[in-house]
Design brief:
- The protein has a domain at about 15-60.
- About 80% of the residues lie in helices and about 0% in strands.
- The chain has two helices and no strands.
- It has helices at about 1-10, 15-60.
């Protein structure tokens, strides 16, 4: 059993190429999965900041806000 497991991890002598390729693949897959979540969070934060600045500007000028919060 351990001999076949060792040969599996050795990948017929190509382990130095195969395992890093798996590592790169799963790293890219993870980044591809997380990037939209971080982008959404950043966009929502920027939008909240814009809305707060707009509301502050409207309060200074005496206009009513058109956005409902």
């Amino acid at each position: 059993m351990s001999g076949s497991l060792q040969s599996f991890f050795a990948m017929g002598g190509y382990a130095a190429y195969v395992w890093p390729a798996y590592g790169v693949f799963f790293t890219v897959l993870l980044i591809d999965w997380l990037a939209p979540q971080f982008r959404r969070r950043r966009l929502l934060r920027d939008l909240r900041g814009r809305m707060a600045r707009q509301n502050a500007r409207n309060e200074r000028t005496g206009r009513k806000s058109t956005a409902s919060t």
